[in-house]
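Shape matters. As here.
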Amino acid sequence: MAGARELLLIYPRLHYPSGDVPLGVLYLASAIRARLGFEPEVLDLSFSSNPLAAIHNRLAQKKYEWVGISAMLTMAKAAAKVAGLVRQLQPRARLILGGPHPTTLPERCAEGPFDFLALGEAEETLVELLEKGRGEGVPGLWFRGDNGWIRNAPRLPITDLDSLPFPAFDLIDLEQYKRLWFPLDPIGQPVAGTSVLATRGCPFQCSFCQPTLERLFGKKLRKRSRENVVAELAWLKERFAVQGFVFVDDTLLVDRAWTEELAEKLKQARLGLLFGCNMRAELVEEDMLRHLFEAGLRKVYLGIESCTDRIRQQVLNKQISREQIEKAVALAHKLGIKVQGYFM
């Protein structure tokens, strides 16, 4: 365990600063803090004017036995660049790559300088790796052996999401994200907020998300308890003075009863927070939107993807019609809820 106390987690977002916090890294950090009892360090490069210099300066100040890099697919080149710099400056550091990139393309990532690849949800994987200090027998992990890569069995998804501690927002500069955060309220005033994840997984099969999402989170939609979600929001308001948030779940309306109960819990809590969320157009109904509006919903993100049904349905495998999209937008506007479309 002594070596595990020198851990640096790097988020290599070099060219896309936004209001979206690196929740995956922050969940990893909070799991390590809770389970192993020490403070990992997080180096978020999202706002660095010279990210490679920032890495160089950090690694020049301290020796790390473990360095973890989390990467989306769009960060593949950045992750490789960061990993090369880590190898150059601290060649003895044990290098871990996690996130959607290695989960989707592990064979390609295995060609890089990494010692370990964490596939899928990595909270339990990383904690177990740090506890053991080696990769043997750790589900969800590939590791470099004497004669090539050893591929351990996949790790089952975490069944009790309430067992996870809240993300370690204190390990990043949350004020930077809050300043960049987009307007949520109906008069267009900026709202200082952050990202919240209430569920994991998505039952739909859109070609631009799958199979990545299933490899990350499994095929079954898993939900935190409504009480646990509201507790995190109350904590975010008290600890970090947030005024709003976005549910970054892939779609919030899959389980209607759960969503209705969540809206009711939010109203009862009287937190005064505004929020946005992702929705699928065919699941949008006026009574549900009204319920969520009363709980603070002010912005909906719809996956429109294309202006033609043929592209959306036949190419992208998103079985939603233009009429359903127009109806969803009209219902939102009727209640004073802003709509933002996503396009592929």
The chain has two domains: 3-151, 181-343. The mean pLDDT is 91. Residues 285 and 328 are 7 Å apart (CA to CA). The longest helix spans residues 226-240.
